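User: quick one, fold this
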Amino acid sequence: MPIRVCFPFVGDSVGGSHIATALLIKNFDPNFVEPVVVVHQPGPLCEYLDHIEIPYKLVPMTVFAGARPSIPHIAFSQVRALRRLAGIVRNNGINIVHTNDLRMHLTWAPAARAGRAKFLWHQHVLLSPSRMWNLLAMIANRSICVSEAVRRTMPKSVEVDIFLNPLDFSASADLRDRKPELVQDLALDPNCRLVGYVGNMTQQKRPNMFIRAAEKIARDSAQPIAFLMIGDDRGGQRAASEQLAKDLGIADQIHFLGHRSPIEQWLAPMDLVLAPGVGDGFGRTLIEAMAASTPVVAVNSGGHPEIIDDRKTGILVPPDDPDSMAAAALEVLGNPDLGGILASAGHSYATATFLPAPIAAQVSALYRQMVGGH
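Assistant:
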């Protein structure tokens, strides 16, 4: 009989952790794992799950532990949800509850144990110091982290395994021929080079560092360059970034494109991707760009150095240093041989390392350990 694993989500967004978990679910062997997906709010995630044909149970909730950084509020939210969620665990024969974001970790952990299921804490981002994590570590049976950088921030009392986030390569065919079409659609100079930023507009992702580097690249490049910024304005940074581009005199070269999907169709035509974000637990954009055979310049922070072998599969530069990022970008753009080497090596590494099926098999093996060889 397969292990029944519950994957609860809030439902108000779709990010890297949701995409990675969906890939695991699609690649589990149904003879060993039976996923039960629970979504608490209709919205973007439901639309995404419908699109990729993953069934789910809609269990409406509006109050979640962790929505406010207050221990009393967390405790109140946990108690309020406990009976209902524990009933879902028991009534559906759930063996393991596998959570993937802060609100679900804190809301579902007590309910999982009250429902007599194992609790698996899957951490995708770096943790800031907090007593909450020590309490969560007391409840968790096991934990998964997506990088060594994340593991270093975890409480020492919880047993941690590192499993990489998988990537879907089915749509990563050679899309570089799409560049003329993209240039025409955006009304750009037919001879321009495309330099991209992919990430939500948050302070952590450093969109303004990208713009400051872009100003230096545009000033020193002998070729016309268009800078494409792709991502939701989730952190309220876009207005400030647009103003910075105006102040630096490059507003006509910075193109704010918002959310775009599938991202491969935008990454592959680019000549270079810059990843200025600091403290990323994993760095999914790096892998997606490498899979699309696009060279990457990224800051040496968080999980980035675990993905990029400097000057072999990409280039690493110091955090919050637009001069260094611009210099590395100009080197890649001005040296086609270097760009080709980085693109080829990056593609080989990504497609050999982040395949969904082997990672799903590793997670399945962990499930079997957790339930005692079920």
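User: anything notable?
Assistant: The chain has two domains: 3-166+355-370, 176-353.
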